[in-house]
Amino acid sequence: MNIKKEDEGKILSLGKDDLGNDVYALSVKGERGMLYRLVDSFLGMYGIGESELNLIDSGIRDNLYLLAGVFFCRLPLLAPLGRPLILAGLKKHYSRLAQLTAEVRMGLVNLP
Amino acid sequence: MKIIYHCYGGAHSSVTAAAIHLGVFPENRVPTREEFLAVPFYDCQEADEHGHFFFMGQDEAGHEVFLIARRSRPRVLENIFAGMAGIFSIPPNDYCLVNVMGKVNLTMKLGGFLSRRWGVVRVGRPIVTLGTQAAYFQMVKLVQRVKREIGGYDEGSLLQRQHLSTGRFGRGDPHGALAGGGGTRGQFPEPAVFEYQKGRRGKDSFPGKG
Fold this sequence. Notes:
Chain A is mainly alpha-helical and 112 residues long.
């Protein structure tokens, strides 16, 4: 996915899960606390119930592979080298991500 | 409609613009230092409150006026707001984000940095107030432009010849859900009335005190 600098903070729709929930992705460099306050405050401002939106922090920090991959992807000539590095970096985190999504899904199923 | 003024720390320029919008500050003269300090939220937002929408009041056209600190990420605020509005089917003409940072001068930046970041309020506050006074008419112009673009204001109200209700202020009730706020800071005992004069406010209403 090609996200430009001006797209920072854009909410990307990824589709629906098998439970019918809409799934989105959002990236903000740092500023996690501000993001939570912004979203909570937005919901409060428009009187939207907190259960309508579940904000989940993937908790993934960039590892060396990801950092190198992102750097190479910025340079057109080295982009083919960057992509495998990004994949390797994601693979390193994959089990943690899979566990996180399983927990989130369990939590959604167990909601009253 | 929700009109949201945003700046770096949500403590000076956005507060001033929102106060001008609500008629708390006059448009034909620069408010005094005391008048600035009597306004709720002026030079009092902390870093752990950044990203929170604070309700300032309702203007004469019925629009709700908010302010928010978004640090140096205006694009993030705009994108998240637009994204959330899209998710919850809020039409784009239901809100208006106004960036006030363009009107901030170096004096304001220096004073704001000293007061908010370093906590040297005694030194920073007079400097930032001086800077706000210097940039005041630019902010007035910005607010007038916002009002012109939004519409719904008659000329009399635009030029602030009439008495304007300041609406409700309240840190404890940033979304205006509860009448009167609930917070101890920034409450007005009665609606302020302006005829190019300073409103009657006690020293206790200054948010930074106590």
